[in-house]
Enoyl reductase (ER) domain-containing protein (Phanerochaete carnosa), 820 residues
Amino acid sequence: MEGMQKAVKWYPPSYDIRVEHVPIPKVQHPDDVIVKVQLAGLCGSDLHIYRGHEDVDAELICGHEFVGTVVEMGGSFGSHAQQRPELYRTLRLGDKVVSPFTVSCGECHFCRVGFTCRCMHSVLFGIPALPGGQAQYVRVPKAGGTLFKVESVTAASKDGSVSCLADSSLLLLADILPTGVFAALQVLQHAKTSPMLTASPYPFGGFDRILTLAIVGLGPVGVCAAVSLLDMLSGIQQTKDVQYRVVAIDPNESRRAKMTKIAEAIGASRKSFAVADIPQAKRTVSEWTSGIGCNAILEVVGNNSALELAYGLVRPFGSVSSVGVHQEPPLPFMGRDLYNKNISFDFGRCPVRAMLPIASKILAKYQAVFGSIGEKISLIERVVSLEDAPKSYELFDKGKCGKILFDPWK
Amino acid sequence: MEGMQKAVKWYPPSYDIRVEHVPIPKVQHPDDVIVKVQLAGLCGSDLHIYRGHEDVDAELICGHEFVGTVVEMGGSFGSHAQQRPELYRTLRLGDKVVSPFTVSCGECHFCRVGFTCRCMHSVLFGIPALPGGQAQYVRVPKAGGTLFKVESVTAASKDGSVSCLADSSLLLLADILPTGVFAALQVLQHAKTSPMLTASPYPFGGFDRILTLAIVGLGPVGVCAAVSLLDMLSGIQQTKDVQYRVVAIDPNESRRAKMTKIAEAIGASRKSFAVADIPQAKRTVSEWTSGIGCNAILEVVGNNSALELAYGLVRPFGSVSSVGVHQEPPLPFMGRDLYNKNISFDFGRCPVRAMLPIASKILAKYQAVFGSIGEKISLIERVVSLEDAPKSYELFDKGKCGKILFDPWK
């Protein structure tokens, strides 16, 4: 693999996106793989760098969401790779792969226990130290731990067909769908929520069987969280005597309209799933719970007003699963606020690699939502060429378009 | 029950404690019980009111820790009290009882699920609205839900004898021992810790079997947390293939010396339990974990420096169980700090009533520690008369004495 490729580059200090020809990346370490990118995503968190908020002072190749095929593998791959993550033995040239937005070795303490986003070798794609996926080729370090082979997804789909999983759909596995799954899972696995699902009282009381939850923020990740949560809850309801009610909240009308269409498309009951703006949500939660508040909140925005709304909606002894990328502002709470409500928080980045087995099943199950482009129920607005990157960043930054994907070969 | 009694009163704005004669309380509601106080405790959180930090502008009878006997019961008690908490049928005049530091009805949503400290009828003892226990008699509202009959404790003790459970020992059930139990339980039940104990991976990873924990703060509650945690961990170790290491931290040398003596008295292994000041603790955790940090922290102080120490000691994807009474200062973290560490927090007050079944077993098991007064391993320094209250508050406020109990009949 010699020669040059097209890539989207960002230049400091801010708002400077250029499409340039740069060298095709090479294998630098035996654990590396070179992926030929089929599609790359433009993600809300790309805007942190775009706007100059991340203290980065060197140019970089953008992007941390990509799907593609393996075109080169380092010397670690092959039948000799015993004792290592399975992919070191099983990955082949031409395999279709998705990459989480961070590198994870699959071998350190954090990877072994499923906290893959805090791998001891973790690097984010799309920073000066690791060129990103908005390019024709991308180098993936620790690839046997990091990458996810797509055949695992197609095997999980109901009818087993490959055709139903378009690349645009698979791209959602790089970040936003696993992050939605993680938000939902953290809430349902919390020690204060799970007694209502498992009927194991906490610790010696009885338990309620009506779970009231809210999702704060209906951007693409919020929608993924809603679909994941409803899927998990309907699964639980089939085996346990439990009722649930979820309110999905966003001040933006077009986001609410899309969430409503998607809820219809996946068959969510209007009794158990409501879409609301902030004042409506407060009234709904108050009516549903006689003023007590929600058991738990999925906070999918990552700023202080979202945290404050979550605090206001949650009941005493409730929990908040906060998966948004928070920035510099101090938390908007006094210690006393948190003591007085016996509140629990789970903060932080999604361990994408660990979530992929669940996320890929959900992806295959809800192809009507995740497989479409540009429709009323689609999370992806359109696919454009790399040349459109400067304009696309600008529109996305101004909230004038939804999620955009780049086809580097268009 | 007519006439006057002695009581410890606080007068605003601060530092004004008087011993006065006041009317003996009467049953005001059919759910009330009047308790003749045998011993009442002086607790660290009494100092918040003492110092004038709680925005209270009316005089009050102090104290939220007491043990005593039932001398009068309202009309709700008796065989007619079906469908209500058991004590409405089974409580008798003369029964020995302990009260949690807050009222809990036993019937609302929060009580039924075990979150008794956030009962919808919750009132703290020792505020203007509810006279406290540093008196000869105290009125207990919602007493069939609030009170705990002591025979349940003696039944749980190994040799079944009543004599081994002195009143001074039982008093620890009102607040500090259950709060220590709660701190330990929150850590061990956390979704991010429990996979290491149950071998159920989170969610699809493997799991480690070495649990590294720290306790921040070795006041009386911190010692109770340490004893409870070690008891639970040794129980787990008997049935599961798990190792643990706990470091107990306090900058105060005499507190560390007491913790060390108590650890010896309960047979804690020096390999798995260390007592340290802050710099030693940082080194110990770093050595034990190769620099990764603790799985979880029991934060038993309730201020920002304790929270910051906890943050510094915990590893990514770790959890902090914070049971201290936090005050007005904003939390000392930026959103980004919490995102970057994937940290979890459980804040808030102990649900004492729900913890009493576990706490009373631990009390009975470790009588060498909990049953002694004024010894090197005792949590209680001495028992004094109510007349000594002004002096005792002053000494306690200045850190010049340990835990003091009042005998109102002395």
Notes: Chain A has a mean pLDDT of 92. Chain A touches chain B through 63 residues (CB under 8 Å). Chain A is about 35% helix and 25% strand. The radius of gyration of chain A is 21 Å.
